[in-house]
């Protein structure tokens, strides 16, 4: 089975631009969650999708949004980029997103905002 | 106070030493994860625990639910074990993970 695939691996954007990141879960997994990792804040939960519905959302501004497609692939969008959005963005997939379901992580997308 | 605390923050040891990394948490959990992150960012899930002990190769993870504490042990440590080890808990009330700050481990040859 292929693992969780995140694209692109690296991205450089300018302040004010928008960016879209992609996460393809393990085949058969229906839950995808997104996390932001910054040096100052560590890893923080962004949101979780299950069967195309956002089930849970972290404490991030509305500039951060996401969606999930019928094939369970998920995208995350950040609009009006700020310097502080520079981070590693990780996604994780699980069969159903239930507590105790195994989580599988992608390698992340490293976003640099200049 | 953070809901998930790891110790130590940094650990440097010689090859072959027995390593212990600790994780304490203050919330109700359904599961606890130990993850490894190498330079370059990719995260690998090592263990998911809800009780007892798990072993995989030279890695052992234990959890004490009553004491809200988990440990990750590495036996016969090797320089390739150098990485950041992160503890994360799945709360029993929602689907998100709460992450520890990580322990940076350096194993010197």
Would you identify the regions of chain B where 5 or more consecutive residues have pLDDT less than 50?
none
Determine the mean pLDDT of chain A. Answer: 92
Number of helices of chain B: 0
Strand content of chain A: over 45%
What is the approximate shape of chain A? globular
Distance between the termini of chain B: 36 Å
Span between termini of chain A? 37 Å
H/E series of chain A:
EEEEEEEEEEE
Determine the oligomeric state from the structure: heterodimer
Largest pleated sheet of chain A? 7 strands, mixed
Query: How many beta-strand runs of chain B?
Result: 11
* Rounded Rg of chain B: 13 Å
Structural class of chain B: mainly beta
* DSSP helical segment count of chain A: 0
How many β-strand runs of chain A? 11
Reconstruct the topology from this structure:
The complex is a heterodimer of chains A (114) and B (109).
Chain A: E1 5-7, E2 10-13, E3 19-24, E4 31-38, E5 42-50, E6 53-57, E7 64-68, E8 74-78, E9 87-94, E10 104-105, E11 109-113
Parallel strand pairs in A: 2-11
Antiparallel strand pairs in A: 1-3, 3-8, 4-5, 4-9, 5-6, 7-8, 9-10, 9-11
Chain B: E1 4-7, E2 10-14, E3 19-25, E4 29-37, E5 43-49, E6 52-56, E7 59-64, E8 69-74, E9 83-91, E10 97-99, E11 103-108
Parallel strand pairs in B: 2-11
Antiparallel strand pairs in B: 1-3, 3-8, 4-5, 4-9, 6-7, 7-8, 9-10, 9-11
């Amino acid at each position: 089975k292929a693992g969780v695939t995140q694209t692109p691996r690296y991205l450089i954007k300018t302040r004010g631009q928008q960016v879209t990141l992609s996460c393809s879960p393990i085949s058969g997994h229906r839950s995808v969650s997104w996390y932001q990792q910054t040096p100052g804040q560590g890893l923080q939960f962004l949101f979780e999708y299950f069967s195309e519905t956002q089930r849970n959302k972290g404490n991030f501004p509305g500039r951060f949004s996401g969606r999930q497609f019928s094939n369970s692939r998920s995208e995350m969008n950040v609009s009006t980029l700020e310097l502080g959005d520079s981070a590693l963005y990780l996604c994780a997939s699980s069969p159903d997103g239930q507590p105790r379901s195994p989580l599988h992580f992608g390698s992340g997308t490293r976003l640099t905002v200049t | 106070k953070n809901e998930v605390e790891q110790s130590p923050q940094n650990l440097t040891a010689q090859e072959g030493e027995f390593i212990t990394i600790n994780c304490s948490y203050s919330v109700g959990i359904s599961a606890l994860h130990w993850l490894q992150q190498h330079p370059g960012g990719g995260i690998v899930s090592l263990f998911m625990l809800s009780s007892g002990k798990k072993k995989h190769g030279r890695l052992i993870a234990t959890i004490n639910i009553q004491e809200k504490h988990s440990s990750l042990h590495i036996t016969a440590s090797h320089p390739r074990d150098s990485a950041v080890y992160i503890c994360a808990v799945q709360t029993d009330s929602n689907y998100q993970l709460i992450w520890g700050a990580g322990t940076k481990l350096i194993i010197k040859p």
